[in-house]
Amino acid sequence: MSKSILQNKKECYITGTTYNLHKHHVFEGTANRKLSEQDGLWLWLRGDWHNLSDYGVHFNKELDLKLKRMAQRRWQEYYNKTKEDFIKRYGKSYI
Fold it and tell me: How much of the chain is helix, strand and coil, in % rounded to 5?
């Protein structure tokens, strides 16, 4: 498992709890999920905030976009890359 560049602790990114955690890859799809894993663009979410409720990130477009924007900014900063570099790797920009 790669190290996340979005979190330092194994706790829910939203609530801070350490119970019922799911690993969420911020960028989905077969190719982008692999890239998210490689680049550390994943974080821990409590099950309900992941995919076990209608407010979870998989069903909540606003939360999904918020996490994508945060992750893209972090990726560009962490890897010292541009928005164009991000688009080449992930197919589009979210910011």
Answer: 40, 10, 45
What pLDDT is recorded for position 2?
Answer: 80
Q: Between vectors from CA 55 to CA 54 and to CA 60, what angle results, nearest 5°?
A: 95
Could you give the CA distance from residue 16 to residue 25 in angstroms, rounded to a whole number?
18
* In the chain, where the domains are located: 21-90
- Contact in structure between 90 and 82 (CB atoms under 8 Å): no
Query: Can you name the residues that pair with 88 across neighbouring β-strands?
Result: none
Whether this prediction's pTM lies above 0.85 is answered by: yes
Calpha distance 66→27 (Å, rounded): 12
Task: Tell me how far the alpha carbon of residue 3 is from its chain's centroid.
Answer: 12
